[in-house]
Amino acid sequence: MSLQDRKFCFIVGAMKAGTSTLAAQLGRQDGTYLPVLKEPNYFRGNLLSLIDGPSPHATQFMASHMSGEDYAALFNPAKATDLLIDASTSYLVNPQSPGQVRNFAPDARIVVSLRDPTERAYSAYNFVASGVGDPEQTFAAAVASEQSGQREQWVFGWRHLYGGLYDRHLRSWLNAFPAEQILVVDFANLVSDGEAAIEQVCKFMGIDYDSQKFSPEVENATSLPHPINGQLRRALLGPSALKAAIKPLIPSRLRLYAKKETLRGLRKFGQKPDKMPDTIRSMLDDHYRESMQETERLLEKAFGLNGEANPATRWLQSRQSSQMQARNDGILEK
Q: What gap in Å lies between CA 10 and CA 101, rounded to an integer?
């Protein structure tokens, strides 16, 4: 049986919306297989023009594209009947990915986890800055850089605002797949009731949910490193002559597993990012307002998500409540 004849589930994003936890939880269930490399980024189209990002990491990303044989090898340990999981978050924001995935696996199930775009952007910046690094030392500077157009042709991982334009990204996937093959997961539900969220995804994928396989552990949570911790993270994530020299000597599965577990351990010694400044939050809320409104309409029309079941509705309502509270506080102070 060729790889294209296998059953596939693609967890396509959004980045920093619980996709690592989602993938790990699903990979524990019987009848599924999650490779050691959670994000193969195989279906990423022609990104040769996106080389203006931070060097050398953007160059490393561009040069790391795997062959079809390498992609197939990731799933060699799986059983013939397993549902194969590819959880590459670059697929959501890359307009070329949906068509490539459809051509490869037209019957695939697509899972999209959505998080409040303002919160997601801040988390994404902190995650990148504390790992491979961002050229700007503050979130405000990174936002200004992107809004000025400086990052227009950068690799998607450093375009922190672009990742939250969900209406645009969802339309690309709806142009490639029918809505019946796409499940939208609310990040807030994944946080508040992870078991129910995982059970919902299992039902969508057509596999039995085993509550005994559920783990409360959160995967890949954003944490800011201490100085030594940060140096070790960057050494693991960035390119180096030493890594290039030993790469051919260590089997890829062992190398990827060791890297994954080491990073997991280092994050446990990090600290939570500071609260987002109110001025930046307010500015981003304005930046995303129109997109959130379009996302709300799209989720209702395409997926029948209404009221509290619609993540975008809650995002918009929370902002209305905050604005009303701010007005009330201003009146009381007078």
A: 9
Q: Predicted confidence band at 55 (pLDDT cuts at 50, 70, 90)? A: low
pTM: 0.83
Give the residue extent of every domain in the chain: 3-221, 223-272
CA angle 311, 13, 125 (to 5 degrees): 90
Spatial contact of 55 and 45, defined as CB atoms under 8 Å apart = no
Query: What pLDDT, in 10s, does the model give residues 56-70?
Result: 556 555 556 788 999
CA angle 232, 14, 88 (to 5 degrees): 65
Numbers of helices and strands, H then E, in the chain: 15, 5
Angle at Cα 248 formed by Cα 71 and Cα 60, nearest 5°? Answer: 65
Tens digit of each residue's pLDDT (9 = 90 or more) over 295-323: 999 999 999 999 999 999 999 999 987 66
Closest CA to 265 of 255, 253, 273, 257: 257
Which residues pair with residue 85 across a beta bridge? 9
What DSSP designation does 188 have?
A: H
* Amino acid residing at 72: A
Closest CA to 285 of 165, 117, 139, 144: 117
Distance CA 97, CA 44 (A): 5
CATH number assigned to the domain covering 3-221: 3.40.50.300
